[in-house]
Every structure is written in structure tokens, then in C-alpha cells.
């Protein structure tokens, strides 16, 4: 064995020491907590273990107008079967999730983000006086070091040409994988190319038409872009503010509150429409003219945040009877020159409180796409809306909107279209002695050509995949808002009715929802979805849940009539034992990963057979802060994949908080999934088993400063710095992107100040 293998073994022992001791000597550790224990050794040990409770320094009071805070992370990892065994920088959030890599990638079912990087974060807030303030977020991490290759022209073996200038980022030490088009219209997938000594490695690629290209070595020009947010606020009047921002994260983009949501309508984990960028139209020799189009941003930073930023101005103003909010901005990529503008977006909303009961509003959004200062796209949307409080319990609102889209306005290939939309809502809410109830009736019409420039409706129209199952996981507020889709999208008219009822101080809750959608032009049936969920807190120790879901699609379509019925019980038998069980019967088949390939369908033809799914979780805490957990899932649908926690698997987990500030975890999971690649290649259905071992130890050296040692990986969402045995997070909800044990060790020192 080499030195690096000895080092790896030592690190594994460090990561696994906690769980081993927890099993063998758990009953005998309480002398550590005994306040009466004395002796030099115990006194020294006590001071050592309690160091995390004290700040390493005492802050001094200051009247300075500047407030500074931040954090840091020092990280390295060791990985077997890798070209470079020792890593100090290897991270990429884009490789996880429901994408092609899960089926076709190099690691396939074991796609995960190594998440190895160093970083330093600094936030500065300055408020010299009440009227003025400023804010800056500075983040120095590998994503702050970007670059772009020199521009080269590459000719294929068949004589086609492509112009290449590849974006580079330091987190992987490679260029980004991109898709380009040749002058004939052929599609070429350019992979991530390794960069060494500021030059890319020569690479051969094959196009979609079978043409071959040789990409020579290209020099990378690097840049340093650490600023993520920078703005200056001027409060020029009471409840009125102007914000000028040279850099702004898309999370701060202006979101309108009109019923249709003309500005920034999207799911929170999607890129905001505000940061889309314009791609000009091209004349291809083989395919002819392809109009210009808007491209959603895909570049993600260390936590999935979008790297494309905004620059512009934001105004908010309120009076007793009116409110106004406007924003104008242009998005900029880390690989763009800051002074170059590819797009400009604008949105404004004005509301007038006509009476105490009636409110009138207007919304306007616009976006232009440009190339070399030539305007090639102009999109606009405008709307009027009204809101009337009919009674203390009833509120009605309605909106009428129009959109205009004109593309390639400076060429002979001009095109334009108008579209319209209409929405009406009726809200009813009533509180009474035993609880409260609320109803929402809604009708929305969107024409096929209604295309507001700063709103997307694709993902907000559908239920989330995890909403098709019973779960006892406590979801975030962001997830709760998007759990149920509204069915709204262009070329649809949608009627929906929803009810939420809470009784007996929240001990009994009901959620019911029904929506039906038709095409906007001829009224052809599109879908109908009915849902009913109930939660009953029977006692302080028992909670019951039920789910009934019916999803009807048009005849001769996949899953023409799909059902999900289920129930679950969660019990805490005593202070040591807790468990829950879930049973579901369904014929609603998840569409992933079949959707990864248009020509591949694993499901049988309708009508679909029903299958059963059983889930069990058992938690046992024999001693203080020593927790044993067993998870089981038996799914009759063998094609269930590792992108959620509904695959066939069994898992055991030990968590032990040895001392305040020192905790450890050990996890083993055995899962079974269908080998999709083998099924595609030879037609054999191989239901293969996979073993995964994971271990993690955390030591809080000082308050808010942690040393973390990890072995292996379970999948996405393994980002916490500290294990809290009392956390409400259900670890069985971790999505199993990783099915097999990964031979990787990661050590990180993280902290805040």
C-alpha cells in the first residue's frame, strides 16, 4: 500500500469511530455528563469538549455604520479510481438531478456532486444615515474564476464549419459542455474539455449527422468575478425607495402580484425569466432560416444558484391610496463582457385603492433582444385587474391581459403575433370556533399565442412528483406553494376549485383540489385532476394521513386514467420508539426516466396495471442521543428510479451525538433498480441490487465552526455541516442519486463570522 492508501484508511477510521463506539459502549458514556465527576483528566476533557460553546474572541460594541458578516470553507477530498486521487477542487451542481446523466452518463446511477471546494463569503451592509444604505455580497470560490477560450473556426471532414469560443469555469477545471450548430444546421455536442496550463486539450467530436470535427488546443483567458450582489438604496420619501444595482441575484427580480403573474412567474428552483438571454436568428445552408429565440439560463453555482446576474434599477413607492413598483434590468453572464448588453427587460405594476373595498391595478412587462446594438426581438404584455371585497369572507378578482411578440424586426424574416388571456378568481375564507376553512374558485383562459416576456408557466402548471405520494416529511414553505399545479399554460382554459380546512387547533386538516383543462381554441379535453388529502392528529402519539388522487388524460394517451390511493400512520410508542407505515395502490406511473428518450417507452400500453407500494420507518433511541433507524420501501413498479425515495430499498442508520458539538452518522442502504441500459441493449430485464455505505462525523470546534469528515455519498441534499438527532428532516426523503458505495473521503472546515 502507498502512503495515500494508508492516509485513506486512517480517515475512514476517523469517520467510522463514532458509530462503532456508539454500538459497543453506548450504555457506559453517561459518566461524561455527570456534573459530579472530578479529576484532572475529566476537567481537561470537559474543557476540550466544551470549547465549541465559546466564541474564539469577544466582539466589541461599535457605532460603525458598516456591518460585516461572512463565512469560510476549507475542503479537500481523496478519491479512489481517479486520475487525480487527491482533490482540493471538484464540484458541479449541474451533474445531479433528472437529466441525461442518470441513464447515459459515465457514472449512470451514481451521479453525484463531489462538492469539494474552498470558499470565502463576505457580506457588507452600510447605512451611513436613514436615507441611504448599501449592500454587497462578495464570494470567492471556484465559480468566481471563469474564462473563455480564444475564438477558432473548425472545419469538419465533410466541409461544414463551426465557430467556437468555449466558456471555462474553475470548479471543474474544464470548459462547460455546450451544444453548437454548424453553418449547415448540424448539431454538435461539445463535451467538457480538460484545461491544463491555460490551454484546452485537443478533442475529437462527432455531430448528430455523423460528421467529425477536430477541436485544436485553445488558450483560455481567465477572469475573476467575485461580486454576487451590489446595490445602493435611496429612501427618498416615506415608503418610497430607489435601488440601483450593478449586480443582483435573480432571486431579487420583481415579482408581480396580479392574478396571471405577468412578471417572474416560475417555480423557485427554476431560473427567473428575467435572466434569459437572446440568441439571434441564423440562415443555415441545409435547413434555411431559423428564427431567433430566448434561452433560459442553466449555469449553476455551488448551491444551485444561478450565476447569471442582473444590472439595473428598481423603484418602489407607496402612498395612502396608491402603490407603484417598477424594475428595469439587463442580465449578464460570467462569460460576457459587462459593458455588452444582449437584452433589456422592464416590468411595472401600479395599484390604486379606489375605495376600502375596491382595488384597481395595471401591469406592463417588456423585453428586447439585441445583437451588436441591433434590436432583433421586442416582446410586451399589458394587463388590467380588479379586486373587490364583496364581504369580510368573500373576495373577487379578475384580470384581462394582452401580449405582443415581434422577432427579427431588423431583417426580412419578420414575424409577430398577439395573444390574450383572462383570469377570474373567487376566494372565500371563514373562521369559526372549531377552526377555519377556505375555498378558491378559479377560471383562466390563455390563448395559444399568449407569450408574456417575463413569465413561464410550464412547471407551475403541474403537480410536483413527490405530491403524488403520502409522506411525513416536513416540507419547506417554498415547496408547499408549488406542491399542486394550477394547470395554467398557453392554449388552455382551466377551471379549478380548491378547499383547505383546519379543525380543532390543526388536529384535523383536509386539502381538496380539482382542476379541468381544455384547449383554448376548440375546447378539446386536455386533463382533469382530483385530489383529496386528510391529516388527523389522533393523539399526542399518533398521526394518520390519507391520499386519493385521480388523473384523467385524453383517450389514447399515456396514463389515460391513473389513480393513487393510500394511507399512512405515524406513531410514537414511547420516548424511545417511533415508527410510521405507508401503503399506496396506484397505476400512475412516473414518467422519468422514460422521458429522457423520445423513442423509448418501458410502460405497457393502457390500461395500466395497478401496483402496490409499502414504506416503513422504525426509529429506536435506546440511550440519550443514540438513534437507530430502519427504512424500507417495497415498490411493485420495478422501474422506479433513484431520483426519489420510492425505489425498492432497505436502509439502516445510526446517529449518535457523543457530546454537545460532536456527532456522527453511519448509513447502509441496499437498493434494487432495473438496469435500463441493459434492457435497451439486449432486452433483458435485470432487477439488480446495489449496496451503499456512508459515514459522517462532525465536530463543532467553536460555536459555528465545524470540522466534518465524510466517507461515500448518499445523493443530493447531503449538504449539512452538523447532524442534529432532533431534526425534523426525514433522512429517508433523501433522493438516491447514488446507489453504490462511492470510494471518496471528504474533509471540510466550515465556519461563520
Number of strands: 43
Structural class by helix and strand composition: mainly beta
First and last CA, distance:
41 Å
Strand portion, in percent? Answer: over 45%
Sheet with most strands: 26 strands, antiparallel, barrel
Query: Which percent bin holds the helix content?
Result: under 10%
Indicate the mean pLDDT.
85
Count of individual helical segments: 5
Low-confidence stretches: 1-42, 56-61, 596-600, 718-729
* Computed Rg: 28 Å
Shape: globular
Counting copies of identical and different chains, the oligomeric state is single chain
Structure description:
The chain has 753 residues and is mainly beta. Among the domains are: 68 residues, no CATH class; 185 residues, no CATH class. The protein is 7% helix and 49% strand. The protein has a 26-stranded antiparallel barrel. The longest helix has 23 residues. The two termini are 41 Å apart. The N terminus is likely disordered.
Task: Explain briefly what this protein structure is.
7% of the residues lie in helices and 49% in strands.
What are its keywords?
mainly beta; 4-stranded antiparallel beta sheet; 5 helices; 43 strands; 49% strand
Layout of helices and strands:
Elements (H helix, E strand, L loop, with lengths): L2 H23 L14 H10 L16 E14 L6 E2 L13 H4 L14 E11 L2 E9 L4 E5 L2 E4 L5 E4 L2 E3 L4 E2 L2 E4 L5 E4 L4 E2 L2 E2 L2 E4 L5 E4 L4 E5 L2 E11 L2 E9 L28 E3 L2 E3 L3 E3 L2 E3 L13 E10 L3 E11 L10 E11 L4 E14 L2 E16 L4 E14 L7 E18 L2 E12 L30 H6 L9 E12 L4 E11 L6 E13 L4 E11 L8 E12 L4 E10 L24 E13 L2 E10 L12 E12 L2 E13 L1 H7 L4 E16 L2 E7 L32 E9 L1
Antiparallel strand pairs: 1-2, 1-3, 1-43, 3-4, 4-17, 5-8, 5-16, 6-7, 8-9, 10-11, 12-13, 14-15, 17-18, 18-23, 19-22, 20-21, 23-24, 24-25, 25-26, 26-27, 27-28, 28-29, 29-30, 30-31, 31-32, 32-33, 33-34, 34-35, 35-36, 36-37, 37-38, 38-39, 39-40, 40-41, 41-42, 42-43
Amino acid at each position: 500500500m502507498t502512503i495515500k492508501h494508508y492516509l485513506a484508511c486512517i480517515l475512514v477510521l476517523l469517520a467510522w469511530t463514532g458509530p462503532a463506539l456508539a454500538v459497543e459502549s453506548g450504555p457506559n458514556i453517561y459518566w461524561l455528563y455527570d456534573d459530579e465527576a472530578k479529576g484532572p483528566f475529566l476537567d481537561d476533557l470537559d474543557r476540550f469538549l466544551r470549547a465549541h460553546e465559546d466564541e474564539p474572541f469577544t466582539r466589541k460594541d461599535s457605532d460603525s455604520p458598516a456591518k460585516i458578516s461572512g463565512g469560510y470553507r476549507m475542503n479537500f477530498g481523496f478519491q479512489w479510481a481517479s486520475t487525480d486521487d487527491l482533490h482540493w477542487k471538484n464540484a458541479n451542481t449541474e451533474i445531479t438531478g433528472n437529466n441525461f446523466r442518470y441513464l447515459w452518463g459515465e457514472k449512470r446511477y451514481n451521479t453525484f456532486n463531489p462538492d469539494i471546494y474552498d470558499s470565502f463569503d463576505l457580506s457588507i451592509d452600510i447605512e451611513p444615515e436613514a436615507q441611504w444604505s448599501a449592500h454587497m455580497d462578495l464570494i470567492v470560490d471556484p465559480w468566481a474564476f471563469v474564462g473563455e477560450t480564444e475564438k477558432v473556426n473548425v472545419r469538419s471532414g465533410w466541409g461544414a464549419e463551426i465557430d467556437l469560443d468555449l466558456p471555462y469555469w474553475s470548479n471543474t477545471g474544464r470548459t462547460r459542455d455546450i451544444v453548437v450548430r454548424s453553418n449547415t444546421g448540424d448539431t454538435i455536442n461539445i463535451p467538457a474539455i480538460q484545461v491544463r496550463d491555460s490551454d484546452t486539450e485537443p478533442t475529437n467530436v462527432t455531430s448528430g449527422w455523423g460528421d467529425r470535427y477536430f477541436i485544436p488546443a485553445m488558450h483560455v483567458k481567465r477572469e475573476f468575478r467575485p461580486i454576487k450582489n451590489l446595490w445602493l438604496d435611496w429612501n427618498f420619501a416615506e415608503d418610497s425607495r430607489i435601488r440601483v444595482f450593478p449586480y443582483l441575484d435573480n432571486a431579487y427580480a420583481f415579482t408581480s402580484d396580479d392574478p396571471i403573474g405577468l412578471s417572474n412567474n416560475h417555480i423557485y428552483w427554476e431560473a427567473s425569466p428575467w435572466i434569459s438571454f437572446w440568441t439571434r436568428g441564423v440562415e443555415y445552408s441545409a435547413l434555411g432560416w431559423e428564427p431567433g429565440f430566448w434561452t433560459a439560463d442553466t449555469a449553476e453555482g455551488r448551491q444551485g444558484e444561478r450565476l447569471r446576474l442582473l444590472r439595473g434599477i428598481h423603484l418602489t413607492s407607496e402612498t395612502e391610496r396608491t402603490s407603484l413598483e417598477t424594475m428595469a434590468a439587463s442580465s449578464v453572464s460570467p462569460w460576457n463582457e459587462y459593458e455588452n448588453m444582449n437584452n433589456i427587460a422592464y416590468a411595472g405594476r401600479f395599484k390604486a385603492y379606489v375605495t376600502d373595498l375596491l382595488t384597481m391595478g395595471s401591469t406592463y412587462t417588456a423585453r428586447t433582444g439585441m445583437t451588436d446594438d441591433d434590436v432583433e426581438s421586442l416582446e410586451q404584455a399589458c394587463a388590467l385587474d380588479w379586486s373587490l371585497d364583496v364581504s369580510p369572507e368573500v373576495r373577487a378578482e379578475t384580470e384581462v391581459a394582452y401580449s405582443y411578440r415581434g422577432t427579427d424586426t431588423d431583417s426580412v424574416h419578420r414575424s409577430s403575433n398577439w395573444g390574450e388571456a383572462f383570469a377570474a378568481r373567487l376566494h372565500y375564507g371563514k373562521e369559526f370556533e372549531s377552526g377555519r376553512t377556505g375555498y378558491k374558485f378559479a377560471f383562466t383562459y390563455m390563448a395559444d399565442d399568449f407569450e408574456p416576456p417575463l413569465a413561464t408557466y410550464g412547471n407551475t402548471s403541474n403537480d410536483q412528483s413527490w405530491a403524488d405520494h403520502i409522506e411525513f416529511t416536513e416540507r419547506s414553505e417554498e415547496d408547499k406553494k408549488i406542491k399542486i399545479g394550477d394547470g395554467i399554460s398557453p392554449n388552455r382554459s382551466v377551471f379549478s376549485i380548491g378547499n383547505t380546512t383546519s379543525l380543532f387547533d390543526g388536529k384535523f386538516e383536509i386539502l381538496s383540489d380539482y382542476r379541468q383543462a381544455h384547449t383554448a381554441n376548440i375546447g378539446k379535453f386536455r386533463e382533469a385532476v382530483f385530489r383529496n388529502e386528510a391529516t388527523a392528529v389522533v393523539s399526542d402519539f399518533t398521526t394518520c394521513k390519507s391520499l386519493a388522487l385521480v388523473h384523467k388524460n385524453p383517450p389514447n394517451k399515456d396514463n389515460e386514467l391513473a389513480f393513487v390511493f393510500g394511507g399512512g400512520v405515524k406513531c410514537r410508542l414511547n420516548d424511545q420508539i417511533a415508527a410510521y407505515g405507508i401503503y399506496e395502490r396506484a397505476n400512475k406511473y412516473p414518467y422519468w426516466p422514460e422521458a429522457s428518450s423520445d423513442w423509448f417507452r418501458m410502460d405497457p400500453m393502457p390500461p395500466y396495471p395497478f401496483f402496490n407500494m409499502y414504506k416503513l420507518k422504525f426509529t429506536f433511541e435506546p440511550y440519550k442521543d443514540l438513534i437507530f433507524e430502519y427504512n424500507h420501501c417495497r415498490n411493485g413498479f420495478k422501474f422506479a428510479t433513484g431520483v426519489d425515495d420510492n425505489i425498492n430499498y432497505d436502509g439502516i442508520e445510526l446517529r449518535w451525538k457523543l457530546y454537545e458539538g460532536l456527532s456522527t452518522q453511519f448509513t447502509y442502504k441496499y437498493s434494487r433498480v432495473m438496469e435500463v441500459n441493459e434492457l435497451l441493449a439486449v432486452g433483458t430485464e435485470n432487477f439488480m441490487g446495489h449496496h451503499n455505505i456512508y459515514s459522517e462525523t462532525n465536530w463543532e470546534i467553536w460555536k459555528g465552526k465545524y470540522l466534518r469528515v465524510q466517507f461515500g455519498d448518499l445523493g443530493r441534499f447531503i449538504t449539512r455541516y452538523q447532524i442534529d438527532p432532533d431534526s425534523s428532516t426525514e433522512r429517508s426523503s433523501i433522493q438516491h442519486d447514488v446507489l453504490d458505495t462511492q470510494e471518496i473521503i471528504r474533509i471540510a472546515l466550515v465556519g461563520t463570522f
